[in-house]
Amino acid sequence: VPRIVILALASLPAVAGGAPSAEVSLAWGGWSRGGRTTWADVRLLPPGAGPVQLRVTSGPETTHAGASLAAGTPAHLGLPVRARDAASIEVRWPGGEVTVFPLDVKLAERPLVAWAADAASPPASPDGPPDHVLTIGPEALAPAVAAYDAIDALVTDGATIASLDETRLGALLGYVGNCGLAVFIALPAAARTVLDQSAGCGGERLRFVSDATAAARALDDLRAAGSPREPPASAVARVVPSPRDNWRIVVLLLAAYAGALGWAGLVASRPAGIAMAIAAGTAVIATFVAVAGSGALLGVWAESSSDGRMARYRAVALVHGSRPGLATVPMPAYLGAPAMCRDDAVADWYWNAQTGRLERLRVPVALFASPAVCFSGHFAVLRPARLDRGRGTDLRLTNLGDGGWRDGGLAVDGRLFPFPALAARQSIDIARGAGQAPASPAEALALQRVGPGEAGLLLALDMPEGASEGWLLLRIAAPAEPRT
Amino acid sequence: VSAWRVASGIALAIMVVVGAWWLAAVSGLAAYGDGGSAANGATKALWLLRGIAVTILAFRLGALLPLRQAVVAGGIVIAGSWPLLVLLWAAGAMTAGTALRLEAALALIAVAAASCAGALARWLGRTAAVPVATASGGCLAALLLSRSWPDLSWLGWLP
């Protein structure tokens, strides 16, 4: 079984009731692509009851977790680990003893393919360079969707899926929903239906095949088709309402102060007048720095097709502050896979073992330094639409679904056509002359994302309170024949 | 033209140049860029420019005016950039203690330069002392600049 197990028994000091022991294992046998997130399973057997603290260190990032232990009862914790060369887990036991477990993270330099199928050994890839193939059993499939970030593709079969427990099956469905690249061998029809309905990217990242040889070929085909055209995080960050408002305030304050100093220098008959201008300017700017505070602004960008069932999103939260210090921001529960957008960012994460998610983040901030957190995931969406093109006349947009739409914008031919709210089954004619240049970063991104000959609907997402902005871009199927 | 009027003009010019330089640099940052290095560079530039200005001005005014007036003029050059310095501290990596020490060093330069120039004026007479003091201030400012010269990597973020 390709799992790294580190037993720490002898190195621990004896405490009342015996020595504490722990096992730490990494998903995928410790293999991961660099900079991705993998998963650590920690089993703890404490001699006494009390709280235990875990600290996972990986480069500049640290993840904190805790659990309450009962005497003699093993406890199990799973938590995400950013895959880097030097990573470790520090366990602080109830008695105060500390044990450090180095994590044997192995960084793959070639595409990492998890092969969890009955075939004795995966056939060589017919095309392209060889992959780094991990041959694993069903029990070695990751128990958390976050762990799937470590691999590039999964090949599995019906027998393996049938033997999965609920946790691993849920993680697998999450991977498929997240547009993960997967090939399934000899899958029963019922399982295929479930996977089809859970699949993100319109199921374009899945293949169902009959044998291992066909699986290797299907994998190559999937990769040849390319990855979904995701917007880069920096593009999504432009959708976030900018904390650069601070920049404008600073410009105004400095301009006002410069004016006051210049005026005092010209008219003051004594240096006291100049000193007062300096003191007042310093006091006002120091007050701004002290009271501006810190927080996080969020932007969500989701994309789907009008005939798809799942939308894939990327989100960016910009943490901002007005002075050097640490800002603590809660992580929204409705967004998945939080990770620092920059690999070199210093961050302290706090993992909630009960909810199984990163609950909050503490990062260093300063004026004009906005650490960014990237999120990604998928959600169910059903908004069928049709666009008819007239011959040089109107565009007719039809809401084919059973639910209404809010007002939005139609991105087509490099222009944005605003439209009002549309009820179910309602159509609207949009004059071709009504096209506008993008007026907001979201509209500009929508036009960038819709290529020539394509169309897209830009709709605002209903965001939970406290969130900033969310947008859904629905790619519309090829327009029907021109109306006569 | 009064000494403090000249001093406030110099203070304003330094603050506007460094402030505009820094704000232009941070406005060009990527969406989640870090403005820390720009702030650190601007802090160094602010200290260097004020150091040069204070050295020359305090030497010249120290030879022309009573010590108190020369020191006040130097103080205006130093303190005129404090609002910008507060912002640079908020954006950069410099600690408040380091900033206070640097300001104290500038004040010491102002007092020492004005005192030296005053002593020179008493020894040589004011007419002869003014060009000598001004030249001395210029030499010391050039020395200050040359001592800082090897570490001008902060100029790399010029917009």
Strand and helix layout:
The complex is a heterodimer of chains A (484) and B (159).
Chain A: E1 6-7, E2 21-26, E3 31-33, E4 37-45, E5 50-58, E6 61-69, E7 75-82, E8 87-92, E9 98-103, E10 106-108, E11 112-116, E12 132-135, E13 153-157, H1 158-162, H2 166-177, E14 182-185, H3 189-198, E15 206-209, H4 212-224, H5 233-237, H6 245-267, H7 271-291, E16 295-305, E17 310-320, E18 325-330, E19 339-340, E20 347-352, E21 357-365, E22 372-380, E23 385-389, E24 395-399, E25 408-412, E26 415-419, E27 427-430, H8 441-449, E28 455-460, E29 469-475
Parallel strand pairs in A: 3-10, 6-20, 11-12, 11-13, 13-14, 14-15, 16-29
Antiparallel strand pairs in A: 1-2, 2-4, 4-7, 5-6, 5-8, 8-9, 16-17, 17-22, 18-21, 19-22, 20-21, 23-24, 24-27, 25-26, 25-28, 28-29
Helix pairs in contact in A: 6-7
Chain B: H1 3-27, H2 36-64, H3 67-79, H4 82-91, H5 96-124, H6 126-148
Brief write-up:
Chain A is an alpha+beta fold and 484 residues long. Chain A has helices at residues 158-162, 166-177, 189-198, 212-224, 233-237, 245-267, 271-291, 441-449; strands spanning 6-7, 21-26, 31-33, 37-45, 50-58, 61-69, 75-82, 87-92, 98-103, 106-108, 112-116, 132-135, 153-157, 182-185, 206-209, 295-305, 310-320, 325-330, 339-340, 347-352, 357-365, 372-380, 385-389, 395-399, 408-412, 415-419, 427-430, 455-460, 469-475. An eight-stranded mixed beta sheet of chain A has the order 19-22-17-16-29-28-25-26. A seven-stranded mixed beta sheet of chain A has the order 9-8-5-6-20-21-18, with no helix packed on it. A five-stranded parallel beta sheet of chain A has the order 12-11-13-14-15.
Describe the overall structure.
The complex is a heterodimer of chains A (484) and B (159). With 484 residues, chain A is an alpha+beta fold. In chain A, 20% of the residues lie in helices and 36% in strands. Chain B has six helices and no strands. In chain B, helix 1 packs parallel to helix 3, helix 2 runs antiparallel to helix 4 and helix 2 packs parallel to helix 5. The longest helix of chain B has 29 residues. At the A-B interface, helix 6 and helix 7 of A face helix 1, helix 2, helix 3 and helix 4 of B.
